[in-house]
Design goal:
CATH architecture: Beta Barrel
Helix content: under 10%
Radius of gyration: 23 Å
Strand content: over 45%
Number of helices: 5
Shape: globular
CATH topology: Porin
Length: 468
């Protein structure tokens, strides 16, 4: 039962850890249209400059430094990633009213080809997921219709101020294949979106509709961070139900009042985290099959719940300080019950979520950031609280950046021994080339904690990126 609880709990919690990264933790999130200023600038440019083409090539290598606790094939320290990425981004300013952008990346993890040199065998699903894979980045057409901007296509919708919790950041799903190790650019995923922006003075009203956004991207079956590892090891099959509606709708109002940037969100969305919808027990002659006095689960069915949210985010600069906050009310959000009721229908509850945080430029290139998050169901006696803090230093003419981040996962007792620590050193050779060395350490002390099966998945990684 503890393994089952840990597996399902990780589904809800990896959304927090996937955003914890070195370069942009507590970084500013822009909710405005990205190409409006570019379009306005290019109106006075000659035709030959209306084309823009760029991209980068990256090589990433990761090494697992412990023997995993989870039931995976790797039983000792070994390489876990050898991925090459080619990313391209092209933009065409057709005229003063129309901009077209195409962007995407091609990934190949060579670990499958090097499998004979490893101490373990990859699962079939993990091996297939490492083969040549194409993924869209933001690719859209944007039109200036007088005072209105319309953008259609794949878009990454980044909302809110929190970099730990999805409070009003509810539209774009996230990449959770390697929780806590991905960069922010790789965490939020673009989805088919129609976005209409209407400027009103120093304010802007935006209407958004997404289609088939799906759920957070999790690790392949049998991979080290597969959230269903424990269930699969008991022979359970995992199925995903389609949502009742593939459309998600949101209205945003952004403004500035007395030097504070404010964003109001009203939305009707599908959850980006799948929840347990049904469990079918294995039976023989109509009798449940038992293993270690526990019923064997033949099939787990997961689904997305539908809920409504109204929320507000704000930030304000005060000298060297930047203050951040978020508050949201989520109506009828499915909530994971206690372990003894795990296979009963999961209840729909109303939630209050909040965040308070700050960033301060301390001295001599040092920046300190911190935030606290709270999630409280109206029927609960206590709140789940999570904390995060980052210390960063930049020097040598901004070529060297070193950071260390520590974050805890949500818990109603605020257990500080449940979370992760992420460290990085980034050296920029030139404006286009840089290398980064990172380490990620997970910590959990109780078998009921979501990260416990993954507490020994600590890793170090090296990446080199060159832009063109």
């Amino acid at each position: 039962m503890r393994n089952i609880v840990s597996s399902l709990g990780l589904l809800l919690l990896t959304a927090l850890t996937s955003l914890l990264q070195a370069d942009d933790f507590f970084g500013e999130v822009d909710t405005q249209s990205d190409t409006q200023s570019d379009t306005q600038t290019s109106q006075t440019q000659p035709a030959q400059t209306r084309w823009q083409l760029g991209g980068y090539v990256q090589q990433a290598i990761a090494y697992g430094i412990h023997s995993p606790e989870a039931p995976v094939a790797r039983e000792q320290a070994d390489f876990t990633q050898f991925k090459t990425t080619l990313s391209l981004n092209g933009q065409w300013q057709a005229n003063d009213q129309l901009t077209l952008q195409l962007a995407g990346e091609l990934n190949q993890d060579w670990l499958g080809a090097l499998e004979d040199q490893l101490s373990y065998d990859l699962s079939d699903a993990d091996r297939a997921a490492r083969e040549w894979q194409f993924a869209w980045h933001d690719s859209f057409a944007e039109a200036n219709l007088g005072s209105v901007w319309l953008r259609l296509g794949y878009q990454t919708v980044a909302l809110g101020e929190s970099e730990m919790a999805a409070i009003i950041d509810v539209l774009s799903p996230r990449n959770n294949q390697r929780p806590g190790q991905a960069n922010l650019d790789d965490s939020r995923l673009p989805v088919p979106t129609a976005k209409l922006d209407l400027p009103l003075g120093n304010s802007q009203i935006s209407a958004l509709a997404t289609y088939q956004a799906g759920v957070d991207l999790s690790a392949a079956a049998g991979a080290e961070f597969d959230p269903y590892l424990s269930l699969r090891s008991m022979g359970s099959a995992i199925e995903q139900d389609e949502p009742d509606s593939n459309w998600e709708l949101a209205i945003l109002v952004s403004t500035n009042i007395a030097g504070s940037d404010l964003t109001l969100l009203v939305a009707d969305v599908n959850s980006n985290q799948a929840h347990l919808a049904a469990a079918t027990l294995a039976t023989v002659n109509g009798e449940p099959v038992l293993e270690n006095n526990q019923p064997v689960i033949a099939t787990i069915t997961t689904a997305q719940d539908r809920y409504q949210v109204i929320g507000l985010s704000a930030n304000k600069a005060l000298g060297r300080w930047l203050l951040r906050s978020e508050l949201a009310y989520k109506h009828q959000q499915v909530t994971q019950p206690s372990a003894e009721n795990l296979f009963s229908p999961w209840p729909e509850q109303n939630h209050w979520q909040a965040m308070l945080g700050f960033e301060v430029n301390a001295f001599s290139g040092f920046t300190l950031s911190a935030e606290a998050n709270s999630d409280r169901a109206r029927s609960a006696d206590s709140s789940d609280v999570s904390l995060g803090s980052r210390l960063a230093w930049t020097g040598l003419n901004d070529r060297l950046t070193a950071q260390i981040l520590v974050a805890t996962l949500p818990d109603d007792t605020l257990q500080l021994e449940h979370g992760l620590m992420h460290s990085s050193i980034n050296w920029r050779f030139t404006d286009g080339w840089h290398t980064e060395l990172t380490s990620t350490v997970y910590f959990a002390s109780n078998a009921d904690q979501a990260l416990y099966p993954f507490k020994d998945n600590d890793s170090v990684a090296l990446q080199v990126r060159g832009a063109f």
